[in-house]
Amino acid sequence: MAALLRKPMTTRDDDFERKFAARTIPDQVADELGAEIVAGRRKAGERLVELDLARDFGVSRGPIREAIRILERRRLVELLPRRGAYVRPLSLKSIADLFNVRMALSLLAVRAMATAPIESYVETLARRCAELETMVENGDPMAFARVTTRAVKTVARGSGNELLVELLTDLANQTVWTTIWKSPLDYQTRDLRRLATDLMTSTLESIKRRDPDAAVASHGKLLEEDRDRALQSLSQMRGESLNLRALSQPEVRTAEDIARAG
Fold first, then answer.
1. 120-168 confidence digits (pLDDT tens)
2. pTM to 2 decimal places
């Protein structure tokens, strides 16, 4: 007799997504200003003057001040007492570290979900895969990336691990993660969208079969390739050289080991 699927946690998947959905004026300014920092258009050590930014963005100084606080939480800006706000140094290595931490948590999540699937999240992940399928041929890269992110969030929720979900939420809200995806870094071609859709669908099927190793393998491959292509795009955008092997290989092995240990 097949084992029963687990019941969902009390917080619904769409409630989880709403944590990422607020778009106030300070949020929008923080996103735009953060994107300039990530792209290298604002250099490390550059002072951010509220009055100048208010004029540039066409808003009052209040939203600018709050936007700067948001960027401080995302570790893009440093606030110095009596001196003001300054752009913090940002390296591809630090961005790669963020990808790798997120990957390690996501692989823990997919292993847990495949070990004891929660029916409602399996159904939600199936809907996400169906959405991706409709976007393979002519999908907008940014829209495709958003659906892929929602699928990864669904796996996190489906793990049944509240602490893991909170950590991933913090990574999205309190680091540069949200900001780096304001530009199309991946999924620009049909072949890339086809590959990502197939890997996510493979993850889903592995979860349905209760095969944690296969789920980790397909989900890990998806996240690794997303990371590498995003880092390549950021390297070109910022005009920096990139050694993917040095940035990613040791952490990938650690991520897989952590997921297996879970």
1. 999 999 999 999 999 999 889 999 999 999 999 999 999 999 999 999 9
2. 0.79
Cα separation, 23 vs 100, whole angstroms: 27
What is the full DSSP assignment across 19-71? TTT---HHHHHHHHHHHHHHTTSS-TT-EE-HHHHHHHHTS-HHHHHHHHHHH
3-state secondary structure of 210: coil
Q: Crossing angle, helix 50-57 and helix 61-73, to 10 degrees? A: 110
25-87 and 92-261, same CATH topology: no
CA distance 76 to 54: 19
- On whether the 25-87 domain is CATH 1.10.287.1080, my answer is no
Query: What's the fold here for domain 92-261?
Result: Four Helix Bundle (Hemerythrin (Met), subunit A) (1.20.120)
Is 8 exposed, middle or buried (CB count within 10 Å of its CB: 0-12, 13-18, 19+)? middle
